[in-house]
Design a protein that fits this description.
About 75% of the residues lie in helices and about 10% in strands. It has helices at about 1-15, 20-35, 45-65, 70-90, 95-125, 130-135; strands at about 40, 45, 135-140, 145. The strands form 2 sheets. It has a two-stranded antiparallel ribbon. A two-stranded antiparallel ribbon has the order 3-4. The chain is elongated, with a radius of gyration of 18 Å.
Length: about 150
C-alpha cells in the first residue's frame, strides 16, 4: 500500500498537470492529518478516518465538477464506496477486518486511478507542470514536442 501510494504521488506530481498535482497534494495532506485522528473509534467504526474521508470525498467531488478530467469523478465514486464500507460496518454484522480489507482494496484502486489519469494526460500530449517532466523534447514531423 505504501509503495502504491509512493508511485502514485511521484507519477502524479512529476508527470501530471495542475489537477493531478492538486489531487496528489490533497491526498498527501489527508495522509498526514490522518495520523492525528486515526484512533477515534466508535465500536468497530473508525469515526475519525470516516470523517476525514467525507472531507476528501467532498474535495474530489468539487474537483470533478470543476475539472475537465475524468479521473476526479472516478476518485469521487471510489471514495463514496469507501464511505459505504464505513456505513455497512455500522449497519451490518461485518467484521472490522473485513471492512478494513475492503477499504484497502478501494484505496489501491484510488492510487491506480491517479497513475492511470496521469498516464492518460501524458498520452494526450499535454506537457507536465513539473520542469523535470518537461525538459525532454522530441522531433515529430519537424516540430519539437515536449515529452
Amino acid at each position: 500500500m505504501n509503495l502504491a501510494s509512493f508511485v502514485a504521488f511521484t507519477v502524479g506530481w512529476l508527470k501530471g498537470g495542475h489537477p493531478e498535482r492538486f489531487g496528489v497534494a490533497v491526498l498527501l495532506f489527508h495522509g498526514l492529518t490522518e495520523l492525528f485522528y486515526r484512533d477515534w473509534l466508535i465500536g468497530d467504526v473508525d469515526a475519525g478516518i470516516a470523517a476525514g474521508q467525507v472531507v476528501l470525498t467532498l474535495i474530489f467531488g468539487w474537483l470533478a465538477l470543476r475539472s475537465t478530467r475524468w479521473w476526479p469523478l472516478a476518485m469521487t465514486a471510489s471514495l463514496v464506496l469507501v464511505l459505504l464500507v464505513h456505513l455497512l460496518t455500522i449497519t451490518t454484522p461485518i467484521s472490522y477486518f473485513a471492512a478494513a480489507s475492503a477499504r484497502i482494496g478501494l484505496w489501491l484502486l484510488l492510487y491506480a486511478i491517479v497513475v492511470i489519469g496521469t498516464f492518460e494526460r501524458w498520452m494526450a500530449g499535454e506537457a507536465p507542470v513539473s520542469r523535470i517532466g518537461r525538459d525532454k523534447t522530441r522531433e515529430v514531423e519537424g516540430r519539437r514536442i515536449p515529452w
